[in-house]
Amino acid sequence: MHQVERAIFDLRRGLPVVVIAGDTRVLVQAIEGATDASVSGLAGHAGGTPALVLSRHRLAILGEPEARGAARLSLPEGTGRRRLVDLAFGIAPEVAMEPEALAGWRRSLEPAQAADRAALALMRRALLIPAALVARVSEAQRSAVEARVSEGTWLAVGAEQAERCLEGSVGMLQRVSEAQIPLADASDCRFILFREPDGLREHVAVVIGEPRSGDVAVPLRLHSACLTGDLFGSLRCDCGEQLRNAVADIQALGGGVLLYLAQEGRGIGLANKLRAYTLQDSGLDTLDADQILGFGEDERRYGVAVDMLDALGIRRVQLLTNNPGKMSALAEGGIEVVERQALYGSLNDHNRRYLSAKSERAGHLLDAVFDGDQGPTARS
After folding, report:
1. CA 163 from centre of chain
2. Which HAMAP family does the entry link to (predicted)?
C-alpha cells in the first residue's frame, strides 16, 4: 500500500508513475495537469505513442453504450492536451472534433489490460477525472525508465496492488482521537475520528447520547460529507437539513450514531462535484453529469462504515436513509438492518431536478417527497 499512496500523490502533482504488470512496464499520467509538453514527453520516455484509458461510463458518452468495462483508445501521433480533454470529459466531443476522426478513434478501442485498469483505479482513488494517459515502455527505453525508478525520480507500483486501492484496507482503520462536542440539537455528543491507513481520508463517528447496547438496534445515519450543503446551506441539495435532522432524530430516539463519511459528491470528490454542477447548469441531471465525467451513478463504498461500526461494537441498526443501496451495503458487511426510517429535508426549485433523478433513476425511496406540489424531500 505504501507505494500506491505515494503514486497517488505524484499523480495529483502531475507526475507520471510506472505501473508494472508482469513483464510489461506502463507509464501513467493523469489528464488533469497534463500539458502538451508532458504528453509528448511521456511518449518520448516510453518510446511509443500513448493511449487514453476511459471508463465504461465515459465510453457510453463516446458512442459505445455496450462497453462492459474500461478500454484503451489509441491516439494519433501529435495528439495534444486539448483533444485529450475533449475525449476524457468534454461535454460534447462530437462538437469539438470532426465526426470522422471521432468515429475512427472509436474503432481503435481495445479492452483495458491489467495496467490500464490499475491506472483508472489510481485516478479514482486520487479523486481525479477517471481517465488516464498510458504509454507502454518499449524494450529500447526500458533501462532508462528503470533507471529513473531506481534513482527515485519516478515511482513504480504493481498493477494488482494498484487495482485493489479502491477497496481500501478492510479491518485496518485507525481510531485516532475523540472529544466531547455539544451540538445544538444534542448536547451529549462524542466525536471519534478514524483515519484510513493510506492517510488520504478521515471519517468521524458522532456518538449521540448513550446508544443502547446488546441486541437492541442502534439508530444510525450514514452521512456523506457535503461541503456546499452541510456548511454553506446550498439549495442544490438538502444535505445540510438532513444532517441536522438526523442529529435531532437520533437524539429523540434515545441516542445512536451518525457516521460522517469523507465521500463528497457520492464519492467523486469536491473538484468533480463542482464540474458536475456546471454540467447540470447546461440541462443535465445529476446522474448524466457524473457520466459525462466518466463516473457511475454512485461511486461510494461502505466498507469503512462497517469497520467503524465494528470498532464501536455495533452489529444491529435502525438505519435513517432513503437509499436501499446503503441497506444492502451494510447487510453485505454483516450489519443487520432491523428497520429503516426515512429522513427528509425540504424541496425547493433548485433541488427538485436532483431529487427527481435520485427517485426515478437511482431507485431512492422518495415517493412521499413528491406527493403534492410542496412537502418534505430526501437525499440518501
Report:
1. 14
2. RibA (MF_00179)
Confirm whether 244 is a catalytic residue.
Answer: no
Torsion of CA 344, 345, 349, 351, to 10 degrees: -80
49 annotated ligand-binding residue:
no
The rounded Cα 21 to chain-centroid distance in angstroms is 24
- CATH T-level fold of 174-263+300-378: Rossmann fold (3.40.50)
223 is in an annotated binding site: yes
Q: 2-167: which CATH topology?
A: DHBP synthase (3.90.870)
Element (H, E) at 376: strand 376-378
Is 298 among the catalytic positions?
yes
Catalytic hit among 10, 116, 230, 298: 298
Which amino acid is located at 269 in the chain? G
- Check the annotation: does 326 bind a ligand: yes
- pLDDT one-digit tens code per residue, 218-230: 999 999 999 999 9
Question: How do residues 317-345 score in pLDDT, each as one tens digit?
Answer: 999 998 888 999 999 999 999 999 888 76
Domain limits, the chain: 2-167, 174-263+300-378
Task: Give Cα 82 to chain centroid, integer Å.
Answer: 24
